[in-house]
Records
---
Amino acid sequence: MINERGGISGRKVRFISYDDKSNPVTALELTRRLNRGDDVLLMFGSFGTPGNFAVRSYLNERQIPQLFIASGDDHLSDPSLFPWTMGWQPSFKGRGAHLRNYIQASYPEAGL
């Protein structure tokens, strides 16, 4: 539908996916390939913490948005240092705090 209506700012949308096999070195190589060869507009929904850390500086230096990262690491959502990177999942720390609060309220005999 987006392409039928002219794309985004005149650019047709193509979804390109490469498998980095959760290897940070491969993630950076494939990200460079996407940037240089495939001329990507943005990265969307990248999975995992190590690979996203590996490509974050590269993408931010080039002002390529790295959106909706599938990792709960707090450091992948720090706009003061990496304004072009945005996490999606709740942080691991935040989820842990919510679970702790739920357990304490629901099971006070657990002694947490």
---
Amino acid sequence: MPRFMIEREIPDIGSADHDALTEAAGKSNAVLNDMKAERKNVQWEHSYVTANSTFCIYLADSEALVNEHAERSGFPATKVTLIKRVIDPVTAEGFK
């Protein structure tokens, strides 16, 4: 399944407290559960929080599903990028 990175511009998100982040994650999960019940294949892997943005990694059948989740959850999808490959330190070892 394709993997996407979603940049969400959210002013001061890096200053959000634990309860606010817990609430946001719960809202996202609720929308994902609704979409799953509708047989829409989209899954949240994790997110990185910076001062004024989040960078979320999702698996989804299409970019349209990522955008639908953003619209339904109320979390902006400022930029959606298809991830072509993942590399890490082990990549340097030349395994195929």
---
Amino acid sequence: MLRPTKIYVKEVLNLIDNNLINGCAHITGGGLPDNIKRVIPDRLVANIDLNKIKTKKIFKWLKLNNIEEKEMLKTFNCGVGFCLIIKPINFKRIKKFFTKEYQPYVIGKIAFGKNKVKLNGQVDWS
């Protein structure tokens, strides 16, 4: 928790220059739902599959020390520090802009809907 946050400016600027992203969100206080909903247009919903999240040890430790899942998702990024909203066809090209340590992976899809963000499944805290 004492490590500085990863800043994605270089990668994001390269993606913008190459017209490869439709939106992005830095996941800070407020967690996934509050930060992602800010960039989702009306009549669309980000369907997030919590089963796909790759949690870090510190978040697993916090969860195992009696923090409710709802509170974990509201307060922490749970290992998802930054979200890109992209066209699926661009995913392979986008991955080339990131180091091996920070490779993006898919955690959801955008669809038509009302609530801007819908969380499905459960994070694996084990």
---
Amino acid sequence: MVDILTPEQRSVRMGRVRQTGTDIEMRLRRALWAAGLRYRVKAANALPGRPDVVFFKAKVAIFVDGCFWHGCPLHGTRPVSNAIFWAEKIKRNQQRDQQVDAKLSAAGWRVVRLWEHEVKKDLAGCVSRIRIVIQTAER
């Protein structure tokens, strides 16, 4: 399928994609709060990769990765127009994710990465998984 937008229109549209406070991130944050898990968001800017949610006491960093932007093997799609650019972009995102995970792990942090589709389909399971990681880290 050919893109119906001009390159300039596509650039403006892609530039408006939110990086923080997305609907899926907010769903997870509300569920964590409702489960009694207290986290930080803005203070996460000091950490590599700027995690979406941080539990400082337990040293747990949570990332919610978008299926498109991070190349989900189940739901990641590849645009037809400008395919080489997007393939390289997603590959760079994946490499950066690995580097961020390594930096955080080296600093003693535990990293939890959730796919956006996991949060959508099994929010309770994601909260449970995070709770387990936090409890393990606090021991």
